[in-house]
Amino acid sequence: MVLYKLEDHYSNYTSPFGGFTIKVMKVFARNHEKVGTVRNLLVDGETGRFRYLILETGLWYVGRIVLIPVGLVQLDYETRSICIPQLTKQQIESLPDLAGELGTEASYEDRISRVYGSLNAATSFTDTESHNRNSDIYTATGDLCDYENELISQRMASANRNGSSL
Among 6, 97, 146, 154, whose CB has the most other CB atoms within 10 angstroms? Predict the structure, then answer.
């Protein structure tokens, strides 16, 4: 499976937000502490489904880049914010820094998924689930699922109008 950054898979990714971008939304941990800002999303190139939120933590000069499986993410359209209720600020800060390593190959995703298996004691998913690409931790829910479905629908409609395949 190849992963793409949001704008590389969906050129119209801002349209469901009326031109506003998800890539600047603030992100909060379990106890409502701000942990960073959305930098991007990684999308499964085969299905068009979101896989990971790319989160920039901290301040610009000391910030780090971490990946969060989309099944752990709750998007709130009204407040234009994201919450990760399964993880604390400390857990998010302890994730490995991925700056300069953002890859899009399956082997890269396998390496990252092992990180979430190690968080088993503090979260509701198991090591087996973290390595299963069909696990719920990789399935968007709520407003994020609605956003994902809207982008998929728009892309399919565009392909049908142009007589091309996805």
Answer: 6
The per-residue pLDDT string of the chain (166 residues; one tens digit each, 9 = 90 and over) reads 688 999 999 988 888 777 778 998 999 999 999 999 999 999 998 999 999 999 999 765 567 888 899 999 999 988 899 999 989 998 888 887 775 555 545 555 566 666 666 554 444 434 444 445 567 788 999 999 999 999 999 989 988 888 766 5
CATH of the domain at 75: 2.30.30.240
Is 123 within the bounds of a domain?
yes
User: How many domains are there within the chain?
Assistant: 1
Confidence (pTM):
0.80
| CA 163/CA 166 separation, integer angstroms | 10
d(CA 44, CA 94): 26
| Residue 105 identity | E
Residue 25 lies in a domain: yes
